[in-house]
Amino acid sequence: MFTGIVQGIATVEEITTAPGLNTFVIRLPDDKVGGVTIGASVAINGTCLTVTRQDGNALYFDAMQETLRLTTLGRLEPGDEINFERAARIGDEIGGHLLSGHIHTTATIVEILRPENNVTLWFEVPDEWTRYIFPKGYIAINGASLTIGEVQGNRFNVHLIPETLRATTFGKATEGDEVNIEIDSQTQTIVDTLARMGYDQPPMSP
User: Within 10 Å of residue 30's Cβ, how many Cβ atoms?
Assistant: First the structure.
């Protein structure tokens, strides 16, 4: 499990491509690899991957074809920067909301607004996922736990403070960038439960 509090920015150093599998070498800051073991879970742009090898502060991860298809990881290139979070431990403070590291879909940044001292990012998601997106609800974007601002059709925005921009890759985001989306699990459970009970149906005309 993860908390959605991004622990820093890491750099993709190398990618080895094989049929149905990509191996990523990702270099973390020196002070963020203490206690890492083979088999440990790390969220890479919100995607839970397993450490298969360690060489100093460079960690190796394998991503299967399904992971590459469902997330943005298949479009990473050497030199790209990513958000990372090591798995939460019992007793850790949950500053965001609980995440599984299982990506539901991707979204595209369609507009960036820069009012004084903050940034607003607008995202567009596939229509079938809009049922889980509500103003003031939780969402994880590239592994960062964020609060949804406004929702307009299949678009929504988030408002980012300077600290979030500093600690994540959002500080360098550009329009057209694709991001990984994990829907809040409690929201998804409630919406799906109501749908099974028939409460998502439009009212019948008199």
Answer: 9
Helices (H) and strands (E) in the chain, counts: 3, 12
- Which tokens sit at 41? 């879970």
Residue 147, pLDDT above cutoff 60: yes
DSSP designation for 74: G
Q: Tell me, what DSSP letter sits at residue 99? A: B
The tokens 């890491």 sit on which residue? 10
CA distance 59 to 37: 10
Q: Give residue-wise pLDDT tens across range 38-69.
A: 999 999 999 999 999 999 999 999 999 999 99
Which CATH number fits the domain 105-196, given the four candidates 2.40.30.20, 2.60.40.1180, 3.40.50.300, 3.40.50.150? Answer: 2.40.30.20
15 exposure class (CB count in 10 Å sphere: 0-12, 13-18, 19+): middle
Taking alpha carbons only, the member of 15, 14, 40, 10 closest to residue 27 is 10
**Residue 140 to residue 45: CA distance in whole angstroms:** 10
